[in-house]
Amino acid sequence: MSESNMQNKTITAYAPASIGNVSLGFDLLGAALKPIDGSKLGDEVDLTIAEHFSLEVKGRFADKLPPDPVSNIVTRCYQHFIKALEQQGYAKADIPALHMTLHKHLPIGSGLGSSAASIVAALHGLNQFYADYFGKVPFTDNELLLVMGELEGQISGSVHYDNVAPCFLGGMTLMAEFKEQVALSLPVFENWYWVSCYSGISVSTAAAREILPKQVSMADTIQFGRQLAVFTDALYRQDEQLAAAMMQDVIAEPYRKSLLPKFDESRTFSKQNGALAFGISGSGPTVFAVCDNLANAEKINQWLTDNYIQNDTGFSHVCQLDVNGAVTR
User: Fold this and answer.
1) Do the first three CATH levels of 3-186 and 193-321 match, i.e. the same topology?
2) Binding site residues for ATP, as ranges?
3) Which residues form the GHMP kinase N-terminal domain (predicted)?
4) What gap in Å lies between CA 20 and CA 112, rounded to an integer?
């Protein structure tokens, strides 16, 4: 696209919410979510050329972010991206500055990959915008993922990809964390529904990690490895019963559930009413229930809405996996 045509062009990047860990895969599994009613469950970033960089923040949860744009993760994404462009040989004078608008639809500390969605939307949007401007894509998906994980680590305290990878690539992803292949896309069960309920309270990733034991027993380590291996194999063989049977968290849930009011009651109701699995999304407080039919999913969704949500910022959605991941328009 010519430079003159880009002057008035706005690109909008969308990045979906995600489930980190997916119960059985601590830091190694992630899944992207898409509500079946068409509502947005993710963050958006608008990008347009400006005289100098600026960031505006809008959306339902905008007031939960630091008021100073300089400390916003989207600003850091922009700064990192521009520096990387310069390191690739682009002259600073040839790189147009942008005005960016973050539409913050995901709550902070929700266990839905809120920071990951902002990071992915920003970096994917930047990559696409400058691809259109310069006529070639600056960075590969894998190169972007490495940067996404690094920036996510600045917020959570450690580099991990189980939110940024599914958010960016879509579907369900397994973290390889190999420099040339950060994440692997896995087969999914298209008939599964994922009820995702955010209670309205906040649980920081750092606090949720602090509550975990510093060491894991040999028995739990073996069970963790077995479950993850069998689950992955079951996905490839499309064995729903075996895959669901593996979805138990022996690493984090026994400790983190104490941070989540009504967790045990919610799990009991869900399992008694057709859920194949029930667990904590990421660090919580969002929980998820997996069902193989819509009727059970809707019943569980209603019960969680009535019983698990703690305040008026909470919400619950019947979802399927978002196989598209981050997109631009």
Assistant:
1) no
2) 107-117
3) 72-171
4) 8
DSSP 148-160: HHHHHHHHHSS--
DSSP labels for 255-287?
Answer: HHGGGSTTHHHHHHHHHHTT-SEEEE-TTSS-E
Mind giving me the DSSP string for 162-198? Answer: TTHHHHHH-SEEEEEEETTEEEEEE---TT-EEEEEE
Binding site, annotated residues: 107-117
Tell me the per-residue pLDDT of 48-76, one tens digit each, with 9 for 90 and over.
Answer: 999 999 999 999 999 889 888 899 999 99
- Indicate the domain borders of the chain: 3-186, 193-321
129-180 pLDDT, tens digit per residue, is 999 999 999 999 999 999 999 898 887 767 789 999 999 999 999 999 888 8
296-301 own/partner pairs: CB under 8 Å, 24+ apart:
296/193, 297/193, 297/195, 299/273, 299/274, 300/195, 300/269, 300/270, 300/273, 300/274, 300/275, 301/195, 301/197
Tokens of 75: 């600003």
Q: Find how far residue 45's CA is from the centre of its chain.
A: 15
Q: What is the CA radius of gyration of the chain?
A: 20
Instruction: Verify cis geometry, omega within 30 degrees of 0, for the bond prior to 285.
Output: yes
Distances (CA, A) of 301 to 162, 191, 196, 277: 24, 17, 8, 14
Q: Which fold has domain 3-186?
A: Ribosomal Protein S5; domain 2 (3.30.230)
